[in-house]
Each structure stands twice: as structure tokens, then as C-alpha cells.
Amino acid sequence: MSITEEVDQTDIEILKMLQDDCRVTLDEMANKLKISKSTVYYRIKKLERLGIILGCHAKLSPEKMGKDYVAIVLVKAKYGAGYHEKVGQKLAEIAGVTVVYYIFGEWDFVLQVRASGKDEILRILEQIMNMEEVERTSTLIVAKVIKEDPRLPI
Asked: pLDDT (tens digit, 9 = 90+) per residue, 17-70?
């Protein structure tokens, strides 16, 4: 979706504040934007109704949660009608798979896997490789995460 005429600069500022800290209060936003608290509330509800705001989440520390092993998995799937939807959904349901992208090129999917160690990564990889829809995989183990930011540039 592109930003429509239903979204103005005030809405953009609200989105930026929520992306930076989803715990920001209506009072804080209203004071910063110099509008009423009820206006902020109704604008947030509008942005949710338009499907622009999909939810608010806490950003957890992977290290403190014991999920500091990261792997990128390239997946080549067996071609068939609607395979990208079916296979993509099956891949997305595997515990530990945090990102699934359907891509064009030599590979069909790029996955990000988060795990507590090499044994858990191996277990997840075995699940992926044992899927009958998967032809082959290639796995890259991440040595260090330099940047990982789920916020959209707006």
C-alpha cells in the first residue's frame, strides 16, 4: 500500500513516534504534535483501520532470550501451481524461522532462522530439508549482526 491522501504529515509523525517507542503515551504525542489527546487517539484508530498499523510489539534482546545464533537459509522448492504460497506458509510455520521471503532468481525463498545454538539450527534445517516440496538448501551462518531494524523508513 502506498500512503494515500487519507494519511497526512501528522499521521506520519504519529507513525514515527510509535515506531520509535510503542509505549509513548497519547499525552506525550499530543503535547509534541500540539493537538488534542482525542485527536491522536482517533488518528491511531484510523491508521489501524486502514491497515497501516498492524500491531505494537516489544523489541526483545535475542542474546538475553538465548536466541543469538542466526542463520540465513536459501531454499529451492519444487515448482508447482501456487507452490510459493503453499511452501512459503509451511516454512513460516517452523519454530525458529523468523523471516520468509519469496524471491526471484536461482533460489525460491530466503529464510532467517534464530536459535539457541548449533543443535537447534540443525534441527530446524533438518525440518526444512525433509519437506518433500524442498529440492535443496544452502545455509549461511551469521558471524555477527551489524544491523537489524524492523522499522520502516518514513
From this structure: 999 999 999 999 999 999 999 999 999 999 999 999 999 988 899 999 999 999
The residue to which cell 503535547 is assigned:
31
pTM of the model as a whole: 0.84
Rg (CA), the chain: 20
> How many Cα atoms occupy the beta-carbon half-sphere of 38 within 13 Å?
0
Q: What is the CATH number of domain 9-49?
A: 1.10.10.10
CA-to-CA distance for 107 and 127, rounded, in angstroms? Answer: 18
The cell numbers describing 153, all together, are: 523508513
Who's near 50: CB < 8 A, 6+ residues apart? 1, 4, 6, 7
Just give the CATH number of 69-141: 3.30.70.920
